[in-house]
Write a structure and sequence with these properties.
Two copies of one chain form a homodimer. Chain A is an alpha+beta fold. Chain A has eight helices and 24 strands. In chain A, a hairpin with a 6-residue loop joins strand 1 and strand 2. At the A-B interface, strand 7, strand 10 and helix 5 of A face strand 7, strand 10 and helix 4 of B.
């Protein structure tokens, strides 16, 4: 359990004793280090770490994050940090989510889904290689790992074209294995964030399971995109791994062809080497890696703001389903099983992400409840 | 100016002296009635009306809203209410927007756009008459009337299929005339809101201008829907007219064919007779009415939650562009001028909504700044 949660990681979350008030904390091994005593150490404004969410910390920006990280690490190394066993604590949602954006940045996933949904056409639509396609998801139903997922009901596609739609619990309940970033200070309306400045606005990363009802989605999604097929729940891992902890795992991104427009160009290595896996009822059914995403996170943030929209502390930007190109490397069941296997009531899905034995993203888990 | 803001209206907003703290208020004529002194009168928890937004009031639900409305009306009638001239105050965004959902509920608008975007097919897609099509918009860039609108830049459609996209300021900047509702207490995740209970969750209504960059939107929107073509700004009118003030203007909705599924059926009259107009640089260019919307607000809220997603106080649900079926009744420029006229820098758009000489929604205004 504690593997990858040593001094090189120190991710941020919010914990509570059962029935107690939510408290920001850092994870160290199998313990939580409550942060309330660190405001003075790190020179942060009073109240920054009072909870119930991390947003006030996110608003302060990278110098404050670095100061806090150094202070926490210092006290742990000195043996003076309070350590509370995680076994007695509940995980809470660590952020108040402002806007939740979901991208579609894996070329293998977009190709696989294009083949399924538009079998007679080019699988990738003409815009896909020119911009990181994305849309807004629902912020209210972002939940922390461990929250049970109620099977949604809704309108289902008509049995034959022209007939009335069905209605009932989804029979094609799926997962989407994604990596998400949580934003820091943000920008004023009208001032885009360049790829060069993107990292200053990224606090850290979580695993995301973007639960999806494929039948509801297929019927509703034209022409304005997914709505109820996605909005019933999105789960995130409880510990936000700071970008600083992921620095050693930045690797070159795959080549992009054609070259993207200037506002999407980057210098340096912005793919993240994070091994990912999907576990279904105790069996690992897929393994892939975040480094194979076509679009990188600085590109995603630069694109999302090129029209001047404002990012706020606590926004969540997810990568879209991460699929590889071999057998058992897909990030959704519809790809893994070609539509023959979806989630049953009682199924448990655990997504995991791990850089090496020093740094892990931990896991995001959820179990399906009947409709 | 004060027409329609008498005792029968009493809408809610947030005002501030220049540079001052935002304060919840009710509008009466050309004055604001600050609400901070009304907590005890109306039996509301301390802090409910302290600002900076109305969300704590929204969370309390209909009995609290009715008590406050009666208390404000009572003091105005008794001549003991504090009246502050609006001329010396700034309007602020009255709510912290949770999720922003945009529907597509005018059959004339959906038909007009379907004809333009898919000239060789049925203008209405197969799902349209079965459910209120909608999607999530961006919450961070919802702004109050009067906020200038910066012309967005972005990727523009390739001149010819297969060529590279362009980039630059949008040349097809448009408006969308919409009516929006702001939600009250909300529901727990997993428990849909029925059409029968919808009104208990609707605090009141605002006018919405869902600014749209048609060229950016056309290139980006497949397959996941509008994103940057809409996310740069959405303007709302400053005064939220409570549903209670709109009760006299509830009228029968137009017939729906086919009958919608049971969860979308309603009893009673749920269309709202609100005359709407679009003014462009001082000239009224379109007049329509909200009562002609195909889908009603209880249907929209029941649909949005049928999968169990949770509504929060301060969510904004907009109708989609409201267009009529005659000349000069369309709610967007692309429909009014068939693509030959979009917004120029310096253009000012004012949308107005009015029930009768007692109750008005006021206006939402915005002026275009250069990119």
């Amino acid at each position: 359990m504690s593997d990858g949660f040593g001094l090189d990681n120190l991710p941020y979350g919010v914990v509570a004793t059962p029935g107690g008030a939510p408290r920001p904390a850092v994870r160290f091994g199998d313990d939580a280090v409550p942060l309330s005593g660190f405001e003075a150490d790190a020179g942060l404004p009073s109240g920054t770490l009072a909870g119930p969410v991390l947003n006030p910390l996110l608003a302060l920006g990278r110098p404050a994050w670095a100061a806090l990280r150094a202070a926490v690490r210092g006290r742990i190394e000195a043996g003076t940090a309070e350590l509370v066993p995680l076994a007695g604590l509940e995980q809470r949602l660590p952020i108040a989510v402002g806007d939740y954006v979901d991208f579609y940045s894996s070329i293998e996933h977009a190709t696989n889904l294009g083949r399924m949904f538009r079998p007679d056409a080019e699988p990738l639509l003409p815009n896909w290689r020119h911009l990181p396609v994305g849309y807004h998801g629902r912020a209210s139903s972002v939940v922390v790992s461990g929250t049970p997922i109620r099977r949604p009901r809704g309108q289902l596609p008509p049995p034959e074209p022209g007939q009335a739609p069905g209605f009932g619990p989804t029979t094609r309940l799926d997962i989407e294995l994604e990596l998400g970033f949580v934003t820091g200070p943000g920008n004023a309306l009208g001032t885009p964030i360049s790829t060069r400045r993107a990292a200053d606005h990224v606090f850290g990363f979580v695993l995301v399971n973007d639960w999806s009802a494929r039948d509801i989605q297929r019927w509703e999604y034209v022409p304005l995109g997914p709505f109820l097929g996605k909005s019933f729940a999105t789960s995130i891992s409880p510990w936000i791994v700071p970008l600083e902890a992921l620095e050693p795992f930045r690797v070159p991104a795959r080549a992009q062809d054609p070259d993207p427009h200037e506002y999407l160009r980057t210098e340096g290595d912005w793919a993240l080497d994070i091994a990912l896996e999907v576990e279904l009822n105790g069996e690992v059914v897929s393994r892939t890696n975040a480094k194979d995403l076509y679009w990188t996170f600085p590109q995603q943030l630069a694109h999302a703001t090129i029209n001047g929209t404002n990012v706020r502390p606590g926004d969540l930007y997810a990568s879209g389903t991460i699929s590889g190109d071999g057998a058992a490397t897909q990030g959704s069941l519809i790809e893994l099983y070609e539509g023959r296997r979806f989630l049953e009531d009682g199924d448990t899905v655990v997504l995991r992400g791990r850089c090496d034995d020093r740094v892990t993203l931990g896991e995001v888990a959820g179990t399906i409840l009947p409709a």
